[in-house]
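Fold description:
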Amino acid sequence: MLINQTVENLRKMRLTGMAEAFLAQNQDPGYRELSFEERFGLLVDRESTYREDRRLKRLLAGAHLKTQACVEDFDYRQSRGLDRSVMAGLSTCQWVRDHRNVLITGPTGVGKTFVACALGNLACRNGFTSRYYRLPRLLMDLGIARGDGSYPSFMRRLAKTELLLLDDWGLGPLAAAESRELLEVLEDRCQTKSTLVASQVPVDKWYELMPASTVADAIMDRLVHNAHKIALRGESMRKIAAAGGQKGGES
């Protein structure tokens, strides 16, 4: 009876991991050989792990990553400009702590989205809030937010997100209003948060995507000068995977 009451009290205090560990200890005679300090330490460890797992699940769910990707799954066998030493540096997530950006460019299918989502996944595993958007969808959502009155709160959420991933940058020219909208998003993040951009268009061609040179200059200034640049090349990874050259396949 005392055990059930203790478990119930732990759950009321939202110590769910500790409650589960306490039940497990009482069902396993092996734990009786441990001292009180040892058993209590295991309970605390279980609660800590439980909370870390819940936080990671929450961060990953909020990130809306397009694909389940991990940096441990990078395929360095293909010659496509993915430098192992560069990725090892990025894998520390120090660039997120330093509020720097990452720009990934390359032709379709070489793995830009996979690399972007893997870095987003790693950021979540390191406790950073992340959010993946295809740029056309972000611009559409911004327009909807302006129309329904949720624009201020939407912009605040974007500004607080520690890593914003923008995929499919440059699928087509931006309208003047879209360029200004994008500048507002980047201005809120400049030197305070990190942004990752994935694009088929080389960085030096991004100016051509925006109609107003002053807005283009402002956007590029906020993105490029403190950014790590990854220029991928080679054949489509989807094509290689379809031919049996890669198990699981990046895309």
Notes: The longest strand covers residues 163-169. The beta strands are 101-105, 130-134, 163-169, 194-199, 227-231. Residues 64-242 form a domain with the Rossmann fold fold (CATH 3.40.50.300).
